[in-house]
User: Fold this.
Amino acid sequence: MRYSQYYIPTLREIPAEAEIDSHKLMLRAGMIRKAAAGMYSFLPLAYRVLQKITKIVEEEMDRAGGLQVLLPIVQPADIWHQTGRWDVYGDEMFRLQDRHKRDFCLGPTHEEMITTLVKNEVRSYRELPLRLYQIQNKYRDEIRPRYGVMRAREFIMKDLYSFDRDEEGLNRSYEAMYEAYTRIFTRLGLKFRAVEADSGAIGGDVSHEFMVLAPSGESVILYCEECAYAANNEKASAALPVKVEEAFLPIEQVHTPEQTTVPAVTAYLGVEPSKLVKTLFYQVGEELVAVLVRGDDELNEIKLGNLFNQPYRLAPPEEVAERLDLPVGYVGPVGLREKEVKIIADLRIKTMVNVVCGANRRDYHLRNVNLERDFSVDTFADLRLAKAGDPCPHCQQPLQETRGVEVGHIFKLGTKYSSALRAHFRDEQGEEKPFIMGCYGIGVSRIVAAAIEQNNDQDGIKWPVPIAPFQVLILPINSEQLATAEEIYQQLRAAGVEVLLDDREERAGVKFKDADLIGIPLRITVGPKGLAQGEVEVKVRMTGEELRWPLAEVTSQVLAFLQENTPEAK
Ligand code: ATP
Ligand code: MG
Assistant:
């Protein structure tokens, strides 16, 4: 491709609305332009990247037994009514009516659609497993569209749905997808991790998110360097400490005037925050529920929410004080039973002995409080927010923290949709059974932004070879080198290399700046100094490495570089 005939409208100014590197760089490098909030046009350079990603995704989906289909984007409301999601989906769903005033939506996802299709087509276990996928635009009216194509309202997704006859089949499909995703992100040349994810109260089954590691990522990941454990912080847990070996001491009431926070009380009494039990209240339905966590721990509201499985909110201390006749800042578990309050506690509470907690009396705390002797708990659960440094739940080594961009999500659905939509098949005994399903998404357009987020510097993008829009950029310093540059261009093209020849009549400085900005992996500079010695100057964009190659070796060197930098999946 000749630059003069191509279209890369680079910008010198950093667009004000862009907050993160990838968004700024995609605008500056002339890859995207905004049409409306969260709606973007992909320009030629970006389209090439999308095609590369798409190709790898398709190859791996096909390899894993996926069959590509294309379902309508516009979906009738009635199938969504059948699963109850027409109401549940809320404002994130784009809705519209046809001329007959019938309701439709723009597909935010396709479980309803695909399950209905399969229900009407597949009758027998003999036709299973079935793994259908598509790559198309999805529509979600995100509450905060931001970061360019990272969180858009119209975006490209690969979604595969698996249909199996039993749990074992589902497990096989899930594993096939897990492996396919691992191969995809490896082949894309990205640093990533598969993490255990929270799959919400409903579903409740296994789910993994694939994260491209990047400091600006919205997700926090805890992982272990010793073993394979990695989890989203919504889900992560840590090994429990061993129970403190201490004899129970007699309970004591201590005067703690105006000491109502964990730091204040622990400082006042000269104890560690890990010796204190915090009591929080949540309103769950009509009920007030007490939740206990260790003084130095933070409650993980996602874990708590999964336990409640219904709407809940933190009850402000003043409200608790009024409803239960308790003093603000001095509540504790001892005697709460008499107020008919249900008590839920984090697992760590079990390991604590002789603790401090509020006395349910103004200006007083209790010391040497012990579980079972002084209070009891209705439900124990893992409720704390795990953090870096915690012992790994599998191997006890300290967990590390990093950030990531979620680019893929795989999920065991079970019969959630097949039951709701009465999508059944006949098994070997002739019995009607709902399909056992899984769903597996990849944010194809989000990957473009995530890849840039992971690979850039102040000058621009540093494309990994597998998804670079072009593999090589040839940059003649001035018109005198154009003929040689043209020769190299033809040779490389003949060898199957994707080359962009910067044949523009621009100053060399401008060309260098644009080259760094658009981030083509290899830049071959054809200049008077090098040519005098029969050489070209080469810059590897990813590492900044500078090389000199004899003219005669250019093609073989380029091919070797490309091969070296194209990761293979195991
Ligand atoms: P998120 O937590 O980021 O909102 P999600 O859980 O809603 O993601 P899924 O429904 O699992 O996402 O969608 C599958 C994939 O589609 C995600 O892993 C992500 O890569 C991509 N994706 C989801 N929402 C968007 C969006 N608004 N813009 C771009 N890509 C998206
Ligand atoms: Mg979402």
